[in-house]
Design goal:
This protein is of the alpha+beta class. The protein contains 14 helices and 20 strands. Strands 1, 2, 6, 7, 8, 9, 19 and 20 form an eight-stranded mixed beta sheet that branches. An eight-stranded mixed beta sheet has the order 4-5-3-12-13-14-11-16. A four-stranded antiparallel beta sheet has the order 15-10-17-18. Helix 2 crosses helix 12 and helix 7 packs across helix 8. The N and C termini lie far apart (45 Å).
Amino acid sequence: MLPEKDIYEVAIVGAGVCGTALLYTLSNYTNVNKIALLEKNQAVALVNSHQNSNSQTLHFGDIETNYTLAKARKVNLAASLVKNYLLRYDPQQEIYTKYHKMVLAVGKEQTEQIRKRYQEFKQLFPELRLIERQEIQSIEPKVLQGRDTEEEILALYTPEGYTVDFQKLAQSFVNNALNISNKTIELMMGTKVKKIETKEDLLYIQMDRKTIAAKAVAVTAGAHSLLLAKSMGYGQNYALLSVAGSFYFAPEMLNGKVYTVQLQKLPFAAIHGDPEVHDRRHTRFGPTAKVLPMLERHNYSTVWEYLQTAGLSLAAFKSFWKILSDPVIFKYILKNFIYDLPFIGKRLFIEEVRHIIPSIKLSELQFAKGYGGIRPQIIDLKSQSLEMGEAKIVGDRILFNITPSPGASTCLQNAQDDTRRLISFLGEEYTFDQERFLADLASDELCQSQSV
């Protein structure tokens, strides 16, 4: 039997931006008084939430052309929670920088697609505008420099662009949680979870240095969440396609974020360029997307963990074959694998960048060594298909978040959803002041949608 000091009401496994958002929500808006945050690294948000590992984008769905109107509406409401948090808690803009953003359409087919999209999306995003060649040039001169004057070009533009250091956002969530004086919140950094098991009315979490127990557990450990879920018998019908994103750097070329039109069949982000979150003198282009058998980028010890998570069953092999043999996906994956290769990669990738900056020189483009993270794409082994969007597995007093992009943008919405579930696990004496949560962070539209 564990001593009372090692028993918590809620334990959160994983201290990225999603785990820390949940810590903030539980500590500020519930009567849960004893919470443990467990993280295998020595500090928060050192993996996919780190500045080097993601595209720094707060996604609203306005210029992401692979989003349907329904998905854009959902993502917009969720991302607005993060935006309002930043406006409230980061007046000095130490966590984020506000830039304009646009999606660039080139050629008749893309410009027609963008015009149609604008008519569909303009009510949801009142700040969104169609801009023609002359205005594009005044906002982003290098986008037109060296471009064929006969080439048809159009852009969807909005001033509402937020480039976010999600690592600093995660630390802000933790700081705000620790400021609650009447709560017991323990940060257990540098300790890896090896096993979780249920014994009677508690969940026991075995770490490499100690064991604790909790009444309810949330696993927010990215790709590792599915590994832990499977170890407990959950999520057996899922596998992971781990997609690694890489970036290239160039000198200052853009004043804001510039996207290209997304291929509809692909769940991966379109190539875009934007100034670095804390230094506009550097422009980042990407992400590329290549499949790697790892749960964590640049950490080869996770290869075996990936194989355990993916599964070596016939169903898994059939699913991977069906997905990766699709001509569109196979061509895309192959091309993106080449982008990371020395010498030839930059020469191929620069053709993608020239859709945005036609005049860029090869000498101005440099591979961002050490940058890029892993985005776990969920595979349903029953349907042998990719599951688009976030995935969540709910078990007995435990939940597992496996969150591909735009997980960071929806971290507070995920935290709200998970808080409701955790409170239901804990029992009737526990409450979530959702009304105050929404009053602090939500737009009027979200408040109205969740009050009916």
